[in-house]
Design goal:
By secondary structure, the chain is mostly helical. The chain folds into two domains: 3-206, Orthogonal Bundle (Fumarase C, Chain B, domain 1); 216-504, Fumarase C, Chain A, domain 2 (Up-down Bundle). It has 20 helices and nine strands. Strands 4-6-7 form a three-stranded antiparallel sheet. Strands 1-2 form a two-stranded parallel ribbon. β1 (14-16), α1 (23-31) and β2 form a beta-alpha-beta unit. The longest helix has 32 residues, at 430-461.
């Protein structure tokens, strides 16, 4: 059954043309609510690959995963009357994941990425199976995919098996947040269980779509956390009566680092028109601490890493990581190793460095605001200190989160354990590399949230002086959720509210 069966006629679908996914499309997919369809121009190639596999089967030539076993069992030939059972058994045996289900945005991306990969027409999967993946996405019927069990080579086998299992009526899926057996869930997408043809089970399981989806969604989250961290960092500059001289473009042009120069511009935009800055232009302070002064250098480097990783991941999203690949024009099925997710692992490890550094720098700014010898503000940003502890332990929490990220930032890609009786003797660990980014982002969002609370509190101590319009807007957005801390109260709800704002992202100002 095609995806169009489950697509409301009133909504124009986004057309998926092989190799032409964009960052915007990936954001739309993660968010849900859009409708998707494979480009008509791709269908001839898809059908040609299916015919090629049928011809190869008819010739009885040994082709990996079509009429042979898998992995170390690749030398075992499978009889023609058992080929359908072979593909079903593959899905069943590889559905060996453990842990909590992957988040909905990640599963949505997995569905889109797998459909887009198969649509290249070198995987020998029928058009109706590809359409069914998009039908699940269109109906927001999301397979339950356990988060652990892939080493990021030979494809993300276990996660993709759980996703594919729903198509054949096994496993479970979420429908409106309710966990249902696969057959019931399929009905919500106007689908019935499929009987997989030669190569189809293998093609559904082979690929980097789980690790890539995890890393892509992490990059999307990181962009929002990054934007908030820059804005909050600018607020802290003003709250500490720091200088805006370190953001002068002449400094950054002299070095030439692209991200650094762009981020310095962002700080100038946040601070433009601040009366707070004007109030201390003639002070005798020569230089601010690194946590204020070196923000463009650190955050610019983080931005460069984010953009590099996004580029790698977009290439991966648009490529084919199946094996073997079927080339209908020459009637060949070529075995290779595109399933090895080393590019994704490296991209994820680089994102981990950026996430950790954003949090580390933010925590130092919060600590600076706590210290009256550096900030000239009340100790721990509270009146009647001693009776009140103020932000003392909130900063400890920020330190704990930043420190945890240091351990999590250790590169996952340098690890490898052989699998499949040493047939698969080097693996990427890309799935863990990408999955751990979300725990790190949780931590860094919390660290930036605590700084936001502290910087807003510090600004309030400077009243009636006002900061820039942009920073006052950031202050007002927080104050809609969290009041000034006049005396000690429960801090956890304040941190939770501020963290939600960080995760939502902030409106980045632009100079006229």
């Amino acid at each position: 059954m095609s995806a169009s069966t489950a697509t409301p006629l009133a909504i124009t679908p986004i057309i998926v043309t092989p190799g032409q996914l964009t960052d915007t499309m990936l954001v739309q997919a993660a968010a849900g609510g859009a409708r998707w369809a494979i480009a008509d121009s791709a269908r001839a190639g898809i059908e040609a690959s299916v015919r090629a596999v049928r011809e190869l089967v008819a010739r009885d030539a040994p082709v990996y995963g079509i009429n042979t076993g898998f992995g170390k069992l690749a030398q075992t030939r499978i009889a023609g009357d058992q080929l359908a059972q072979l593909q079903k058994n593959l899905v069943l045996s590889h559905s060996a994941g453990v842990g909590q289900p992957l988040a909905a945005p990640v599963v949505r991306l997995m569905l889109l990425l797998k459909a887009a990969s198969l649509a290249h027409g070198v995987s020998a999967v029928r058009p109706e199976v590809i359409d069914a993946l998009l039908a699940l996405l269109n109906a927001d019927v999301l397979p339950v995919v356990p988060e652990k069990g892939s080493v990021g080579a030979s494809g993300d086998l276990a996660p993709l098996a759980h996703m594919a299992g729903v198509l054949i009526g096994v496993g479970e899926a979420f429908v409106d947040g309710v966990r249902l057996p696969a057959v019931q869930a399929l009905a919500h997408a106007a689908l019935a269980p499929f009987k997989l043809g030669p190569k189809e089970g293998l093609a559904l399981l082979n690929g980097t779509q789980a690790s890539t989806a995890l890393a892509l969604y992490a990059a999307q989250r990181l962009q929002r956390v990054f934007d908030a961290a820059v804005g909050v960092g600018a607020m802290t500059v003003d709250a500490a009566k720091g200088s805006d001289t370190p953001f002068d473009d002449r400094i950054h042009a002299a070095r030439g680092q692209r991200g650094q120069r762009e981020v310095a511009t962002r700080y100038r935009e946040w601070l433009a028109g601040s009366a707070m800055r004007q109030s201390h232009l003639d002070c005798d302070k020569v230089q601010d601490p690194y946590c204020l002064r070196c923000q463009p250098q650190v955050m610019g480097a983080c931005l460069d890493q984010l953009r590099h990783a996004q580029g790698i991941l977009l290439i991966e999203a648009n490529g084919v990581s199946d094996n073997p690949l079927v080339f209908a024009d020459t009637m060949e099925a070529l075995s290779g190793g595109n399933f090895h997710a080393e590019p994704v692992a490296f991209a994820a490890d680089n994102l981990a460095l950026a996430i950790a550094e954003i949090g580390a720098l933010s925590e130092r700014r919060t600590a600076m605001l706590m210290d009256p010898s550096l900030s000239n503000l009340p100790a721990f940003l509270i009146e009647h200190g001693g009776l009140n502890s103020g932000f003392m332990i909130a900063q400890v929490t920020a330190a704990a989160l930043a420190s945890e990220n240091k351990s999590l930032a250790h590169p996952a890609s340098v690890d490898s354990l052989p699998t499949s009786a040493n047939q698969e003797d080097h693996v990427s660990m890309a799935t863990f590399a990408a999955r751990r980014l979300h725990a790190m982002l949780d931590n860094t969002a919390g660290v930036v949230a605590i700084e936001w609370l502290a910087a807003a509190q510090a600004l309030d101590f400077h009243r009636p002086l006002r900061s820039s319009a942009a920073i006052e807007g950031l202050h007002a957005a927080l104050r809609e959720r969290v009041a000034f801390l006049a005396t000690d109260r429960l801090m956890a709800p304040d941190i939770q509210a501020a963290t939600a704002l960080v995760e939502a992202g902030v409106m980045v100002p632009k100079l006229a």
